[in-house]
Write a structure and sequence with these properties.
The complex is a heterotrimer of chains A (about 450), B (about 300) and C (about 260). Helix content of chain A is about 70%, strand content about 5%. Chain A is mainly α and about 450 residues long. Chain A starts with a helix and ends with a helix. Chain B has 4 helices and 13 strands. A 5-stranded antiparallel sheet of chain B has the order 2-3-4-5-10, with no helix packed on it. Chain B has a 4-stranded antiparallel sheet with strand order 6-7-8-9, with no helix packed on it. Chain B has 2 domains: about 120 residues; about 140 residues, Rieske Iron-sulfur Protein (3-layer Sandwich), CATH 2.102.10.10. In chain B, a hairpin with a 5-residue loop joins β11 and β12. Chain C is mainly α and about 260 residues long. Chain C has 2 domains: about 110 residues, Cytochrome Bc1 Complex, Chain D, domain 2 (Orthogonal Bundle), CATH 1.10.760; about 80 residues, Orthogonal Bundle (Cytochrome Bc1 Complex, Chain D, domain 2), CATH 1.10.760.10. In chain C, strands 1-2 form a two-stranded antiparallel sheet. Chain C has a two-stranded antiparallel ribbon with strand order 3-4. The mean pLDDT of chain C is about 90. Classes of the chains: A mainly alpha (about 450), B alpha+beta (about 300), C mainly alpha (about 260). Chains in contact: A-B, A-C, B-C. At the A-B interface, α5, α7, α8, α9 and β4 of A face α2, β1 and β13 of B.
Amino acid sequence: MLRRTVRFLDERSGSAPLLLKVLRYLFPDHWSFLLGEVALYAFIVLVGTGVYLTLFFEPSLAKTVYQGTYAPLRGVQMSDAYKSTLDLSFDVKAGLLLRQTHHWAADVFVVAIVVHLMRIFFTGAFRRPRELTYLIGLLMLFTTLLEGYLGYSMVDDLLSGMGLAIGYSVAMAIPVVGANLALLIWGAPYPGDPAFESRMYVAHVFILPILIGVLITLHLALVMLRHHTQFRGERQSERVIVGVPTFPGQTPRSLGLMLSVAAVLLLISGLVQINPIWLWGPYEVGQSTNGAQPDWYLGWLIGGMRLVPSFDLTIGDYTIVPNPFWGGALFPLVVLVVLAAWPWAERRLTGDRRLHNLLDRPRDAPLRTGLGAGFLAWVFLVFISGSADRMTVLFGLPYEQLLKAFTVAVLVVPFVVFLLVWRACVELGGAEEVEHEREAAEAEARAARA
Amino acid sequence: MVPSGSASPRSEVVVTLLLLAGAACAIAFIVIYAIDGLAHQTQLLGLAIGLSLGFIAAALIVTSRRLVVTEEIAEEYPEPEHPDERDAIVEVVHESGDRLTRKRLLGTAAGAAGGALGLALLAPAASLGPALETSSLYRTPWLRGRRLVDDKGRPLRADDIEASNFYTAYPEGADPGQMSAPVVVVRLAPAQLELPPERSGWAPEGLLAYSKVCTHAGCAISLYRSPLFEPVQPGPALVCPCHYSTFNPASGGAVVFGPAGRPLPQLPLAIDGRRELRAAGNFSGPVGPSWWGVRKGRPT
Amino acid sequence: MRTRPLLAGAAAFVLLAGGIAYAQPPSGIVRPTSESTRSPLELGAQLFAGNCASCHGSDAAGVTSPPQPGAGDIQGQGPSLRGVGALAADFYLRTGYMPLANAHEQPTRRRVLLTSAERRALVAYIASLSPGPGIPRPHPERGSVSEGMQLFTQHCAGCHQVVAQGGVVSGARVPPLTRVSAVEIAEAVRIGPYVMPTFSKRAISDDELDSIIAYVKSTQRPEDRGGWGIGHVGPVPEGMVAWLIAGIALVIACAIIGTRLRG
C-alpha cells in the first residue's frame, strides 16, 4: 500500500529523492531548537482560528444599536464590528473560546518569537552564512507586531480605539511626510474614512498573513538548505552535523510539540479570559478610560511615549518633530536597525568573518552576550515603565516618582548590566576554550593539507 | 537503513491509553458543544479540547521516546559554496550579452522604463486619502455662534456649569465623531485665570472650553483634577489617561506635566441672550496630535 | 531540647509583634473620659476638639492660612466643615480617610479607629454646625446597569477605569471601587473628595446616581464568562499570563520533548 503510494507520487512528480532528503534531514538534538517551532505552531493556530473568526466578524463601522444578550450594553449605539464581536462572544457556541484562542495565540506567538530570537542571538546562530535567515526572522517579528495591532484594533472597542488614535499620532509625527502618510492610510483626518476599517481588515486577514507565510517558507527553506547550526559536542564539528532524522525520530516530537502548543493555548483560552470587550464598551472619539494599554508586544512603545519629556521640536512657529516620534517611531526603528545590523557589527568588532555552523554558549562570547544583555535590559526597562501607573495603583508608589526613577534606570542600568554580564562571561572563561579548539582545528586542517 | 531497536510493549499500552483518553476528551468536547445553555461552557469546552490535545501530545511524546527507533546520525554539512556553478552563472550571463554594443545606454533606458512603470503602478495609491491636502487637518466644525450641546443634543446653559465639575460638549448640528468636535467645559473663579492677553474675553464668568483631544497622541482628555481644598492639594488640571499629559485650564491649556509638546487648544466662549453657551470663534490652535507643519496657526 | 519554653517564647513574640503592628498609630484617636455618659453631640464635640480641630479649626470654619500648632503634634490645614452636613462627615469617617495625619497627603482608606457610636456622634456634631446634606439613601436596584455604564464611562472612567479598577491622575492615586458600598459611592460623588470632581444633583440626578451605583456594583462581579478575569484591566496581566504561564509551560514542553535521545 505504502509502496504503491510512493510509486504513484514519484512517477508523477519525480520527488522521491527530495522526499528522501527531507525525511532524513538531521535536526540537532537540543531542546532550544524547538522554540522556533513553537512560534510556527502558534501561527498555525492563529490561521485556523482566524479563518473561523472571519466567518462571523463584520468589518464595518456602520452604527447599530445593540439589543442582544449582554444586558449592560442593551440600547447602546455601537459599530457593526463591535456588535459582531459581542454576538460571537455571547451567542455562538465555542465562539468565545475560539476568539480567546486567537488572541492568546497572538500574544504567545510573539513570546515564542522573542524567546527564539534570544536563543539565536545569544548563541551566535545569525552568523555567516545565516544572516539572511536572521533578517527574515526580524522582518517577521516586526510584521507580526503590526498584524497583531491591526487584529485587535478592528474590534472598535474603547481600549483598542484609543490605541488607534495613538498609532495615528505616531504616523503624523514622522518628519516631513507624517501628515501626508497618516491621511493616506486613514483616508481622512482621524477617525478617518469608514473604509479604514476595511483597510485594516484586508491587511490583517489577507495581505500580512500571506507576507508572513511567505517569509516563514523562505525562513524554513533557508534553514534546511544551509542546515541547522548545532552546539559543540564529541562528534559535532564545523563540517559534521549530528542529529536526529526527520523521520522517524523527529516527527513524533514535532507533532507532539504542535499538539502541546495547541493544548496549552486552548486550555488557557478556556480558563483565562482575554480582551473582554464587553467590559470596555464601544469606542468613541470623545471618550477614554484610565489604565488603557496596548497588547504586551507593543508595551515597549507606550513606555517610550510616556518617558520622553514634553517637547515638540520646533523652528519658530513650525513643528519639525512632534513628540510621539521619539518614543513611538524612532525607538522601535533603532531597535530594529541595531538588531538587523548586528551580524555585521559583530564581524567588525571581533574581526571574525568566518563561516560558523557551531554555536557559542553565551559565556563563550562575552562581548556579544554582554552587549545583548545590556540592550535587552534597556528595551525591557522602557517596556515596564509603560505600566508604571498600574504599579501606582497596586503598590501606592507615586506615579511622578516612578517615572523619574525609570528615566534614570533606563539610562544607567543597561550599562551596569553590560558590565556585569560581560565580566561574568569572561570569568567563566569559555572564550579561551573556544579559541583553543579553533586553533587546534586549524592546525589539524593545515596538517591534513600538507 | 534504519537500525533496529528493542520493543517496549508497556509503552505501547501507555500510548494506546493516552490516545483513547484523547479521543474521549474530543468526544466530550462535541457533547459539551451540543448542549444548550450550559454554564461555564467556554471553560468546559476549553478543558475538553485542551486535554484531548494534551493526551494525544503525550502519546506522541511517549512514542518518540519509547516506540520510535532512536538514531543519532552524523553527516557532512552541505558544501558551503559552489564556486564552479557560481562561475558558470556569471559566465552565462556575460556571454549572453555578446550582441550588445551599448550596454550602458540600454541599461539606463531599461531602468528609466522600469522606474517609470513602477511609479505609474503605484500612482493610484494616492487616491487612498487626501495625502497632499493637509489643510483638512485644520478644519473644525466650530464657528462663531455655534451652540455647545451635550451628547444628547441639549444646549449647555451657563448656569448649569458648576465649579469643580467638568462637562463634555459638542458643536450643534455637526458630526460628534471628529477629533475636532468634543470640547471639555469647566468653570474657574475669574480671579484664578491667567489667560494670555489676547484671550482675555474668551472665558466669560470664568467658563472655559478646551478641545477634549490631547495634543500628544489624540486620546480623549477625560480626567479633571479638581481640588476640594486648594491650599494643600494640587490645582485644577485637565489630564489625559494615555500618557498623563496634564494641561492647566487657568493658563490657557499650558502643559504642566507629561509628554505633550503643545498646549491644549482653547475655544473662546460666549454666553448668549438665553444664557446658553456658544463658541465665539475657532480654537486657539490646531486640534489633536501635532504634525510637521504650522504650530500656532488658527484653524479655519 | 527545651521546646516548650521555646514555643511559648515564639508565640509570645508573634502575639506581641502582631499586637504592636495592629496597634493604633501614634497619632491615634484622642478620646474624652467617660464616653458613655455623654450625649452624642457632646461626645461629638469632644472628639472633634481632640482629633479634628487642629486642621479644621476649633470652630470648624477651616484653617486656610499657614498651619497652627495643634493637639498631638499635628500641624494642620483643612477646609471648613460648616454646611458639609452628615453626608461628608459620614463618608470621610466610615472610610477612614479622616482623621488625616498629614494635611498634604492624599487621604487613603484606613482601618477605622472610631467605634460606631463615636462615629455617629461625630457625624451628628458636624451635621449640627450648619444645615447640610444628610446621609444619602441610594436605590441601585431601581437603576439601570446599562445607563450606569454609559454615565460611568462619561464621567468616571477616565480616572477610575472603565471597570472601576482604579488608576492614576497627575498628583494623585485613584482608588479602585471593588469594595465600596452604595452609600459610599453616593457620598463620594456628591462630595468630590481630594481631587475628584464634585457632581451635584444638577449634574447627576439621584436617579442617574442609582444607575451609576448599580453599574459600579456590577463591576464588583463582572461578567467573566471567558474565564479567570485576571484583574479586568486588559493587556498588562494578559501579557504576564502569556509569558509566565504559557511561555513557561511551552519552554518546559520543549525541554521535555527535546530531551536528548539516548541512541
